[in-house]
Write a structure and sequence with these properties.
- A hairpin with a 6-residue loop joins strand 2 and strand 3.
- 22% of the residues are buried.
- The protein folds into three domains: 161 residues, no CATH class; 68 residues; 44 residues, no CATH class.
- The chain is elongated, with a radius of gyration of 24 Å.
- It starts with 18 loop residues before the first helix and ends with a strand.
- The strands form two sheets. It has a four-stranded antiparallel β-sheet.
- The protein has ten helices and seven strands.
- InterPro entries: RNaseH-like_sf, ZnF_BED_domain_contain.
- This is BED-type domain-containing protein.
- One of its GO terms (cellular component) is nucleus.
């Protein structure tokens, strides 16, 4: 494979913009890709042509329009690792000179020029490359954790598959479930030691993917509203009469609570006890 190290930048130093900046950038979200390349095209024989490369697909970081035309990959051959963009069309055509269609992800100009000259693809009207194209690496490397060989196509496939199995949204829901079940304070997720623990145990997790306490509060409200609709449906379809009980208890901080529970049997003869509300 031809070298393109002269274009390479440090993947770990390219820090994405804050989430607040992304949420307020209408230009980025307006032209964000609606689809991405088919990463299943990366079979073992394809990885053999790209020693040291692993899939690094992350839709939350691929907000610039040209990500729908190229793969987001990580080059693990050097330290620190590099995030690169590989043209999907050239890749599928098995073009030999890889330097003509492999670019460092932060070099947006080269990517845009390649798409324009080689494939007659131009930016959407009014769209310019912006900060949304920045990329970063994980805190701990999967290759180091698994002692995998980045030049081995089978190891490349394994690492890429493991990375694709992690869903940050599910991780947030599991954190919320853990905190609420054990009645733990939400600001626990702001602890530096807690965040270090998460990052160490999951090399696919990035620090900006760990939710703040405010994010979890908003997520809890959203989950409550979603669950409320499901509870209403269950109560309307109850086979038995709905019975209510009232429970009172005091926390360790001497705060008094009153809860209302509903008891019923559904159409499948399953017995339910649902907490409808509680008051401090």
């Amino acid at each position: 494979m031809d070298s393109f190290d002269e274009e390479v930048e440090d993947a770990t130093t390219s820090i994405p913009p804050p989430s607040s900046e992304l949420s307020t950038s209408s230009a980025l979200t307006k032209y964000a890709p609606s689809k991405f390349p088919d990463y299943e095209a990366w079979t073992i024989d394809k990885f053999e042509r790209f020693p040291g490369f692993t899939i690094c697909h992350d839709p939350s970081r691929e907000r610039t329009w040209w990500w729908q035309f190229g793969f987001r990959m990580k080059d693990n051959r050097s330290q620190p690792h590099k995030i690169v963009w590989i043209c999907e069309r050239c890749f599928l055509r098995n073009r030999l000179k890889t330097t003509n269609y492999v670019f460092v992800a932060s070099t947006a100009g080269g990517i845009v020029r390649h798409l324009s000259r080689e494939h007659k693809v131009v930016p959407p009207c009014g769209k310019m490359t912006g900060p949304g194209s920045r990329n970063g690496g994980t805190q701990r490397n999967l290759l180091d954790m698994l002692h995998a060989d980045p030049t081995n196509p089978r190891d490349q496939t394994l690492v890429s598959n493991l990375r694709s199995l992690f869903d940050p949204a599910v991780n947030q829901l599991l954190l919320l479930d853990w905190l609420t079940y054990h009645n733990l304070p939400f600001n626990l997720v702001n602890s530096e030691r807690f965040r270090r623990l998460l990052l160490y145990n999951n090399p696919s997790l990035r620090e900006e993917q760990i939710p703040s306490d405010r994010t979890l509060v908003n997520l809890l409200t959203s989950e409550y509203n979603r669950a409320s609709q499901e509870v209403r449906v269950l109560l309307r379809k109850a086979r038995s009469m709905v019975h209510f009980t009232f429970d009172g208890w005091t926390s360790r901080q001497n705060a008094s609570f009153l809860g209302i529970n509903a008891h019923f049997i559904d159409r499948d003869w399953k017995q339910w006890r649902i907490l409808l509300a509680f008051q401090l």
